[in-house]
Amino acid sequence: SQTIHQWPATLVQPVGSPLSLECTVEGTSNPNLYWYRQAAGRGLQLLFYSVGIGQISSEVPQNLSASRPQDRQFILSSKKLLLSDSGFYLCAWSAALGNTIYFGEGSWLTVV
Amino acid sequence: DAKTTQPPSMDCAEGRAANLPCNHSTISGNEYVYWYRQIHSQGPQYIIHGLKNNETNEMASLIITEDRKSSTLILPHATLRDTAVYYCIVRSRNSGNTPLVFGKGTRLSVIA
User: Fold this and answer.
1) B51-66 pLDDT tens trace
2) How far apart are CA B92 and CA B7, in angstroms?
3) Which helix (H) or strand (E) is B13 found in, with range?
4) Contacts of residue B55, Cβ cutoff 8 Å, sequence gap at least 6
5) Residue B2 CB neighbours (<10 A)
6) What is the average pLDDT score of chain A?
7) Nearest neighbour of A90 by CB, restricted to B43, B103, B104
8) Are residues A107 and A7 in contact, defined by beta-carbon separation less than 8 angstroms?
9) A7 touches chain B (CB under 8 A)
10) Is the dihedral of CA A49, A55, A59, A62 positive or negative?
11) A38: three-class secondary structure by DSSP
12) Which residues in chain B have Cβ-Cβ distances shorter than 8 Å to A99?
């Protein structure tokens, strides 16, 4: 069966510091990968999605970037965090665009 | 994707069936009805989806009206662990890069 892992689960970072969240999927090949963010009390916002290695699409302009160095690895990064980057970050995967999307457990980021 | 309307909150007694309604009167012919839930501080969990026939799996049943303008998610024997926000989403399987759009959902509280 397929599983998705993301880490770290929680982190507190100062403003201006870098960020790296990692996500890996097991049990499938060539998944579509997604990064979502959920700000406190708000809905999920799609940040990035990827249909293959090195292929990244950005949904909203922001202080973040994403990379897919391997087939089942998706990384969310920032060079300098802002207070507004605080939130709950979720990695997700699907077998194909438009198919059922499965989410990881999420990473809580607090920028102070 | 078509929009959905759900009640903001519902209560259900433990052991009873929880029936969560969803209105999607503008759904189009190629759009599926998806249900997810999000337990506090966790990633959204896929529950079930359907097109026009009723569906059942180990978690829940999905009843879709004949005109497809509304549906009901049924948790047959609710437990305290079913307390969560439940999201009804309509989405085409050919939606390409269209993000999964979560509304505000229904906050289900299962009461002992």
Assistant:
1) 998 999 999 999 999 9
2) 23
3) strand B9-13
4) B48, B49, B61, B62
5) 16
6) 92
7) B43
8) yes
9) no
10) positive
11) strand
12) 93
Contact B46 A100 (CB under 8 A): yes
Q: What pLDDT score does B98 carry?
A: 64
Give dist(CA A104, CA B41) in Å, integer. 12
Of A46, A104, A108, the CB nearest to B99: A46
The residue behind tokens 């990695």 is A91
Q: Spell B82-111 as b/e; 16+ CB within 10 A means b.
A: bbbbbbbbbbbeebeeebbbbeebbbbebe
Interface of A with B in 90-109 (CB under 8 A): 90, 92, 97-106, 108
Cα angle A75-A81-A87, degrees, rounded to a multiple of 5: 70
